[in-house]
Amino acid sequence: MLNIALKVLKYSFNLKKGERVVILTDTGTDQRIPCAFVEAAQELGGKTTLVTIPRPDRPGQEPAGEMKTRLEEALDGADVFLLITSVSQSHIAAVALSRKKGTRGASMPGITPAMMNCLADPGLKTRVDRVIKSVSGATSLPLAALR
Prior knowledge:
By secondary structure, the protein is α/β, with parallel strands linked by helices. It has a single domain, classed as Response regulator (Rossmann fold, 3-Layer(aba) Sandwich). The chain contains six helices and four strands, in the order αβαβαβαβαα. The chain has a four-stranded parallel beta sheet with strand order 2-1-3-4, sandwiched between helices. The two termini are 29 Å apart.
């Protein structure tokens, strides 16, 4: 998973040495995934903060007490955030504020090791490029066009 995390941070986020990366995870997530991103960010020279919260009962549930404060402090001044959680946390207040400040980020609710491994598929870039080419300049797109 480390090689995949390296590619995501390098190519999708253009992570630069010295940038601050905040990774939010929860106890309902396979910890190998956020740990791979922590290791990848450090290998690329990023300064990482990992925040682990109890598994939320529902999407968008705000972390409570000390965890909320810790997340807010971590996101303040972050360059990149990754939400690697069991349920979506993309609309919690600290993340919304971070986005408004221009922080680059991604939400990966429910991601599993099998999903991560799909990103290693050598044919994935070719398929994505084909889809991009087929929709470039389109004003509408019938769903059948993506086959």
